[in-house]
Amino acid sequence: MIFRIDKRLAFPDPRLGNPDGLFAVGGDLSTDRLILAYSNGIFPWYAFRWADEIHWYCPMDRFVIFPEEIHVSHSMRTLMNKGLYTVTINRDFHSVITACGQLRIGKAGAWLGKDMTEAYEELHRQGFAASVEVWDGDRLAGGLYGVCLGRCFFGESMFSLVPSASKLALIHLARYMAEHGGAMIDCQFETPHLKSMGGRHISYDEYMRIVRG
């Protein structure tokens, strides 16, 4: 079932949505609505070129990484030991989200249009979104960004301009969270890349217990 959202700051029960997680359309990308959404495991995702309304997803099967379970392969350890790159947090959110959008802008399903980008930049300005940057000298070589609420990080997108830069960003994020009491990195959907780094499936109910914990 797909619900239509109006101007009220509320969401219907996502358990009634489609198997792929889509359960609502409409609404807006205001900071208050986005915080409410992520607090309930909901995120916007839509191809801005053809969709005239925001699509809201909340899969009942969640793919996550627990920070202490991050898998660092031998090849990644070797890369990290070489010290070729510097990793920072929140040094350049704008450049990270811009790079994520530009690398996909030519694809039909590109979702990081002007409205989405501005919404997440506002979240960042208000302290609810963060980035991890990988630097090759003064050049941004990769990174990721997502939403931060409580002890959870809700990953949105990542990019690499050199091999394994996004993996390096994710490892840095997981280790930082493990050291500072972080509970979970939400990956939204499974990919081979994320599964190889320790991602696993949990139920929506378990997911929400962690988010609310």
Automatic annotation (TrEMBL):
Pfam families named among the record's database cross-references: Leu_Phe_trans (PF03588)
GO terms under cellular component: cytoplasm
Catalysed conversion reaction: N-terminal L-arginyl-[protein] + L-leucyl-tRNA(Leu) = N-terminal L-leucyl-L-arginyl-[protein] + tRNA(Leu) + H(+); L-phenylalanyl-tRNA(Phe) + an N-terminal L-alpha-aminoacyl-[protein] = an N-terminal L-phenylalanyl-L-alpha-aminoacyl-[protein] + tRNA(Phe); N-terminal L-lysyl-[protein] + L-leucyl-tRNA(Leu) = N-terminal L-leucyl-L-lysyl-[protein] + tRNA(Leu) + H(+)
InterPro entries registered for this protein in UniProt: Acyl_CoA_acyltransferase (IPR016181), Leu/Phe-tRNA_Trfase (IPR004616), Leu/Phe-tRNA_Trfase_C (IPR042203), Leu/Phe-tRNA_Trfase_N (IPR042221)
Location of this chain's protein in the cell: Cytoplasm
Keywords recorded for this protein, A-Z: Acyltransferase, Cytoplasm, Transferase
Keyword Acyltransferase annotated: yes
A GO MF term: leucyl-tRNA--protein transferase activity
GO biological process: protein catabolic process
EC id: 2.3.2.6
Family classification: Belongs to the L/F-transferase family.
Entry-linked HAMAP family: Leu_Phe_trans (MF_00688)
Protein function: Functions in the N-end rule pathway of protein degradation where it conjugates Leu, Phe and, less efficiently, Met from aminoacyl-tRNAs to the N-termini of proteins containing an N-terminal arginine or lysine.
Protein name according to UniProt: Leucyl/phenylalanyl-tRNA--protein transferase
Species this protein is from: Leyella lascolaii
Lineage of the organism: Bacteria, Pseudomonadati, Bacteroidota, Bacteroidia, Bacteroidales
